[in-house]
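Technical note accompanying the year-one report. For the benefit of new consortium partners, we illustrate the data format agreed upon in the data management plan: each record pairs a sequence with a structure-token string. No post-processing was applied to the example shown here.
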Amino acid sequence: MPAVDAVITDSQQPGSDSLFGKKAAEVRAKATMEGPKGQSRVILAEMPLTQKEAELRTNMEVQAIQASLIRVGITYQGWLRPGVGGLWDLAVDYATIKSPMLFPTKEGQLRMKLWSYAYSQSEAGTTTTVEFVSEKAFAQKAADAKQNDGFLSNGATAAQAEAAT
């Protein structure tokens, strides 16, 4: 996915006697990101959405973009986490990936969040494949779709209602 500075979701919702016209036909939410200025990703919702649902859909798209920006997969021999032991835990595990070729910075490393893991066995032995993504992919929003729940901050603003034009 390309980097963008805004994610916009357009939708509509079913009308009723009290909800009709533009308010029902033009539901829009927008979130801004740290990306190239002037490049937006506009999503036409897959189904009718309320305003809150459009905000949640927009926030999910921001997280998907962040997850796709940096993704590292590693396969190693054995079941246990290298250096610390124990099995991987999606809820809490991070790793510092050291690779000057992947991360051309002074340190040549990046702290990343565990995205997935798979254990497998074959005649050659046991292997574990782990996949890591940028911490920004895990910025969560609270149930109201507006407040950050404090887990991580991804530099993007929460989706806000916006008038469609």
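Partners are asked to follow this layout when depositing records. The chain has a mean pLDDT of 83.
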